[in-house]
Amino acid sequence: MHKTVLIADDEPDIVNLLKLYLETEGLSVREAWDGKAAMEILRSEHIDLAIVDIMMPELNGYQLIKIVRKELKLPIIIISAKNQDADKIVGLGLGADDFITKPFSPLEVVARVQAQLRRTYEFNDHPAAEETPFTRVGAFELDHHSCVLYKRGEQVALSANEYKLLRLLMDSPGRIFTKKQIFEHVWSEPYIADDNTVMVQISRLREKIEDQPRNPVYLKTIRGLGYRFAKEEECRDSSQ
């Protein structure tokens, strides 16, 4: 299926370079030179993936991602000269699905774009006939068609990776998953032992689903082992 990628960066050389490589791979490309223009395109056109720089006029990349995550569901790749761990943690914590530092190989960017598009949209292109449309645990209902979570009937928007992480845990309530298992299932890449990506995503999910994120009831940490979703009876007990 034909896909459209938005590149939001105020450096014309970078935009033109990425556009050349992405279009060579059969992708359509839209360009924005600042965060405000990028948001206007995202609201008015169908965009399948966004590549976002952090340092942009009008709206910076972080501000743009915060707005996008409230309104839209699409994969976001940050591409930035900021290369400190803190910058990556902030970007992933706000909802980005990947972080690439400048200078970069355009072939690597293309590969990561294609990987995100496959992971995000392949389940829509090849639905399993026998798959149930929902996973329900306690007051939570995860809709596999729209990739939206409902908590006590209230809709909770999820990013692509948040959906995949939550589905993994909710499909087996009570089962403990290690960081390695979670990372390799959600990102389909080999796990790096000191990588904190899983921790960041777990923290973001808790902010969305827990009544008190600092005292989680549903998304539990099992010290030294990993994470698990609460069992049905635990969810019922916590709602009483």
What does this structure look like?
The protein is of the alpha/beta class and 240 residues long. The protein has two domains: 4-125, Response regulator (Rossmann fold, 3-Layer(aba) Sandwich); 134-238, Winged helix-like DNA-binding domain superfamily/Winged helix DNA-binding domain (Arc Repressor Mutant, subunit A, Orthogonal Bundle). Helix content is 43%, strand content 19%. It has a five-stranded parallel β-sheet with strand order 2-1-3-4-5, sandwiched between helices. Helix 1 crosses helix 5, helix 2 packs parallel to helix 3 and helix 6 packs across helix 7 (179-187). The protein is globular.
Question: Brief description of this entry?
Answer:
It contains nine helices and eleven strands.
